[in-house]
Write a structure and sequence with these properties.
alpha+beta, HIT family, subunit A, globular, binds zinc ion, 22% strand
């Protein structure tokens, strides 16, 4: 039984601040925001990694993740000035929750350095 924090949120066992939800994706506010707007785009079905996700043939869903990022960026008002979309993968990528997700950041001018 997989019970990472995102699966618990999706099952309703943990509270979250959701800004978007459909059958495939949930978008919530990061509890430790790194920018004025910091959202997490999370596939509803559990996948550990991008590799798992693609092995199951979820290429359309991968495209949908980008479409949702665009849609939510408009919804929260960061589309016009711009935003950053990031995925952390694996130990060196700094992934903290073992459930595939994307970070959507904006609300201020982000520096040119993606890593520090
Ligand atoms: Zn999960």
């Amino acid at each position: 039984m997989i019970s990472d924090v995102f699966c618990k949120i999706i099952k309703g066992e943990l509270k979250s601040d959701a800004v978007y939800k459909d059958d495939d994706f949930l978008v919530i506010k990061d509890i430790n925001p790194q920018a004025p707007v910091h959202l997490l785009i999370i596939p509803v079905k559990h996948h550990f990694s991008l590799e798992d996700f693609m092995e199951e043939g979820n290429l359309e869903l991968l495209g949908k993740a980008l479409i949702i990022a665009h849609k939510v960026a408009h919804q929260v008002g960061i589309a016009e000035k711009g935003y950053r979309l990031i995925m952390n993968e694996g130990e060196y990528g700094g992934k903290l929750v073992p459930h595939l997700h994307f970070h959507l950041l904006g609300g201020k001018r982000l520096g040119p350095k993606i890593v520090k």
